[in-house]
Design goal:
- The chain is mainly alpha-helical and 246 residues long.
- Strand 3 (174-176) and strand 4 form a beta hairpin.
- Helix 4 packs parallel to helix 9 (203-245).
- The protein is built from nine helices and four strands, in the order H-H-H-H-H-E-E-H-H-E-E-H-H.
Amino acid sequence: MVCFITQARVSMILFVSSFLTILAVGGFPSFVEETKVFQCERLNGHYGVGSYVISHAISSTPYLLLISLIPGAIAYSFIGLQREPGQFIYFELVVLMAMLLVECQMMIVAAIVPNLLMGIISGAGVQGLMILGAGFFRLPNHLPHIFWKYPMYYISFHRYALEGLYKNEFEGLTFPAYPGGLPTVDGETLLKSVLHVEMGYSKWIDLAIMFGMVVAYRIMFFCIIKIKEKVGPIIRDFMSSYTFRN
């Protein structure tokens, strides 16, 4: 009975944290065009890599907030999650962090794989692997240790999004153990025994980890651009000399 009651909520949480946010992959073509514009303006000395990364983060966040707020509110009210304002605000914050992380990942892919088709395939593939290793389709304690548990489960932001939203929804609630029975199973027991959620830290730690991953991805994006600026001319010179000799 407990599993039946919670299944709809758990499925909706997966949908919002994974399949809704993966739609941000559709922004990849604009990232490719932005990269081309940045490279031209960078050569002309208009601004540096750090200015580009910071300004892009500032300018894109309001739009991501808007597109996470509206679909998130629709999904939240549709499934009938907890009506407390605090729970709803946390829910929207997690959706926003997930949107920011998908955007950061696609920017990194755009910096590495400038080809449009290959970039979309690569970005969607990375997202798919992270969703599979997040602990929903196969519970965390049952994941194979090689690759899926270490490192995929720990580097997948979907894992922290799911954990945070699970705790946000089920902590403090009680459920009947059988149809028509009294609510005797508390949410904490359900989280630990049924969903295999780590309860050693609060939901805010999960949110903080996601924010830390946003910062880490931005730094990674900055480093990739700087490395390409250093290595790119060397590779082009080598390829030109190789072509000339042949």
